[in-house]
Amino acid sequence: MPYGPHTVEDREKMLAAIGIGSVDELFADIPPELRASPLDLPGPEPELELATRLLDLAARNRTDLASFLGAGAYRHWSPPAVDQLLLRGEWYTAYTPYQPEVSQGTLQSIYEYGSLIAELVGLDVVSASHYDGAAATAEAALMCCRSTRRERVLVSHAVHPHYRQTLRTYLGDLELEEIPLVAEGEAAGTTDLAVLERLLADGDRPVAGVLAGQPTFYGLLEPMAEIGQLAHAAGALFVAVVEPVSLAVLEPPGAYGADIACGEGQPLGIPLQYGGPYLGLLASTDALVRQIPGRLVGLTTDLDGKRAFVMTLRAREQDIRRDKAASNICTNQALLALAASIYIATIGPHGLRDVAANGAARAAELEAALTAAGAPRLHPGPYLNEFAIRVPDASAVHRRLLGRGVLGGLVLAEHEPDDPAVRDALLVCATEVTTTAEIALFADALRHVLAEAVA
Amino acid sequence: MSVTGPRLVPTLFERSRPGRGGDKIPHPPKDALERIPARARRTAPAALPELNELEVVRHYVNLSQLNFAIDTGFYPLGSCTMKFNPKLNEWAARLPGFANLHPLAPDEVAQGTLQLLWELEGALAAISGMAAVTLQPAAGAQGELTGILMIRAYHRARGDGERDEVLVPDSSHGTNPATASMAGFRTITIRSAADGGVDLDAFRAALGPRTAAVMITNPSTLGLFESRIGELLAAVHEAGALAYMDGANLNAILGRFKPGEAGFDVMHFNVHKTFSTPHGGGGPGAGPVGVAERLAPYLPSPRVLREDDATFRLERPGERPTSIGRLRGFVGNTGVLVRAYAYIRAHGGTGLREVSDDAVLAANYLKTRLAGTFDLPYDRPCKHEFVASATSLKAHTGVRTLDIAKRLIDYGFHPPTIYFPLIVDEGMLIEPTETESLETLDDFADALIAVAAEAARDPAMVKAAPHTAPVRRLDEAGAARQPNLRWRPMAGAEMPCPD
Fold first, then answer.
1. Distance between B447 CA and the closest CA of chain A, angstroms
2. Which domains does chain B carry?
3. pLDDT-wise least confident of A128-132, A284-288, A322-326, B390-394
């Protein structure tokens, strides 16, 4: 066994102390008819061979492409300080801070994380982390149902499709309806407020919560204040699904009346790593503090009156309340919340604003280059750093771009097969790490691919 | 923890000075945000701290030193399996090919990761005896929800939708009833038998046409193998219900018991327990779920598929309409799964069986050493963990389990899990794992025996423990009465950092 400490003598000493001859005797309580068949797995692999295997597997992924793919997970520069600090064993080999006297590091870091995110979203209560943006959004919807005692949730069709699918799974027998998008004109691709108003007007089916994204899955900016006003006028809560880097420059949810903010924290210094571990952000107003799921850390004192931190309001949690808990969440994404905190602390408020603004600038450059190459934007409205472009036969074009070393965003029709509005479209993004050379490569490749298609 | 102890540190906000901090990325063009309508823009900048990198590094290094961790000491936290987290696995997850792969990258550029995930599914199926595995759930509790939702879908697909009850023993993890509630079921709690195992008669009496599922942890949260599990599973299936196994305690039975072979229909794995992925101060984990053949149609999407030409791909949206859908975005906690894969490969089949053998041996050894000092309410061979109780000690000295736990901190050990499972009075759930040396096990036993002697000699001292930790016991009631959940400059001024 590669990591076991016991010598033959150690094992014999333990067996003798217990008073048995063989470890098999400790498994005698497994009924013979239920004992396992042999484990059908390869033999153990020495570290050097295993390292080679892992290197080979990693090399079989292609991460050398000029990538314009975002769609909910984004490339950013993460200062090396972030990962080097995460690699301290005191952080990553600790467990949940159930014993606060020997967990002040983790506890203070969670309190600071909550404080940092509270500043970004403009809300007061931040849960210690959820699995990812989609799961946090589902928890936000369940919070709405619990606190309003209503059973109907409205979600904008412009919220990430994975989040909408996750909502459907989590809401179970509760009602989930999608708010369609404006089809044409200046507001095309954003939430249709007139339809929202009609959906909210159904007095027999009162709405618990209205969910909208800022920016949307298509990168567009929504009229969040108006959506919030409509929700509140109908007695529903308003949930903003946000991207945290954008909040350095966009109005925070607390300022436009959101009761809950949720979203994906991955852009805060966390690597892409094929989907996780990421960071589910979940924040709410003070009024909802007893409905928010997940751990909360508060300031307190010790017996000597020294300032210290401790998990608090634990009566919401599964280990105390069992079937009456606010959620079943136990293990969360604590290390990723720590990563996000270190990222924010290292990059600073001005740095975070620069990340967002650079993304916007690069995206404008990208838009100009792609338009010139023959792929104009699909929607006319303002965006931050991600937008859809109109490309005939998008799936084939995307594949041929790949052959030219370009990951040309997302083929929207593959994720929204039933939505004719995005049939011929790619969703592309730029961030501060996107280079002018990459943009030129993309535009050039697109020009060639589109010309080949015509020819 | 040394006697002097590390110092408490000011918050990031207290360290902040306007104008401090270095440029990490270039300044954007001045007009970068001009396209953004004014109504969508932030008017007041976020009041985030301004620090230079050295201060950030010191802050987090100093904070880290206030933590107990596996890398600093013995962490016998029952039900959590705090085993060594191999360093190779951290290295592997950070390989650029794994770390920089976008989750929506086309299958053809993600073949390495897809192959790894597919092989890991196969390994977990082999370990559990289950027919198929999903790697999507992010943690054990999400795995439970996945499993219970699949059970719900199964019953409904058969027109058996009246089943609205889930049975759990009273020794179960809190996540089990919380999961049942989340999935819309009513939880019925069944008392354990006197020997700590499931009470077959009580289960039989509760099972019926309303029962959707029974959730069992095996070995149980008392660290005991459920030797009546065969009869229980037969009764569950006879009633038309399905059996869920909470795999939190899988570390005890690798190569010895396969839940799928025994008749469980679904189970979750906690890779952050059994397969050594780090706990990270509370997460991340990953909670893959294995199912019997009849539940496979309901597995979350997307699944990882292997094509005839030995390439791999993800299921397309809508490809398998019977699926319960998604539990989260993208594919799963892939970075965690890379670590679990490396762990399983490093051990192989023979190594994994040795893991459980040594974990069980260590637990029984510790139990033997503590006999006579503490009560052992279930004094028969345990699996990877066992419950000791301070009931007698408390009767003689007034010292409670909580006090013993806090005193262990002064001896340099993390306390065991205490007051869980709920059915044991003054319980301590002790799980040594297979990666702790005999010397460490002996030191820990000696410390517990010494604390028991101290309790008799100087109970007030034990009740005031810990004495050498960075802080003493905390005012938890005060924290809940007037919650202060975020930093505000005023609160800091009223309560400055003491060191």
1. 17
2. 1-20+49-66+475-499 (no CATH), 88-345 (3.40.640.10), 350-474 (3.90.1150.10)
3. A322-326
Give the gap in angstroms from C-alpha B453 to the nearest C-alpha of chain A: 22
Total count of residues recorded for chain B: 499
Structure tokens at B488: 């505000």
Chain A: residue whose CA lies nearest to B78: A95
CA A314, CA A300: separation in Å to the nearest integer? 15
Query: Is A251 in contact with B40 (Cβ distance < 8 A)?
Result: yes
Evaluate whether A434 touches A366 at the Cβ level (below 8 Å): yes
How far CA A30 is from CA of A16, A25, A35, B237, in Å, comes to 22, 10, 6, 20
Beta carbons of B436 and A5 less than 8 Å apart: yes
Using N-to-C axis directions, what is the helix angle for B53-64 and A104-121, rounded to 10°? 140
Cα distances from B46 to residues A349, A352, A353, B32, B385, in angstroms, run 7, 10, 10, 19, 48
Mean pLDDT of A445-454: 90
Domain extent, residue A110, equals 80-343
Tell me, what's the pLDDT at B3?
Answer: 34
Cβ <8 Å between A62 and B109? yes
Instruction: Kindly give the parts of chain B with pLDDT less than 70.
Output: 1-6, 489-499
Spell out the residues 6+ positions from residue A410 whose beta carbon is closer than 8 angstroms to its own: A69, A70, A71, A426, A427, A428, B104
pLDDT at residue A451 greater than cutoff 50: yes
- Alpha carbons B330 and A189: distance in angstroms, whole number: 23
Complex confidence, ipTM: 0.98
User: If you search the block for the tokens 């604003």, which residue do you land on?
Assistant: A353
Q: Taking CB atoms and an 8 Å cutoff, what residues of chain A touch B43?
A: 251, 255
- What does the pLDDT read at residue B6? 63
Q: Which residue, among A52, A131, A241, would best test binding to B if mutated, counting the most B CBs under 10 Å from its CB?
A: A131
Residues of chain B found within 8 Å of residue A57, distances taken between Cβ atoms: 97-98, 112-113, 115-116
Q: What is the domain count for chain A?
A: 2
Measured between beta carbons, the chain A residues lying within 8 angstroms of B324 are 169
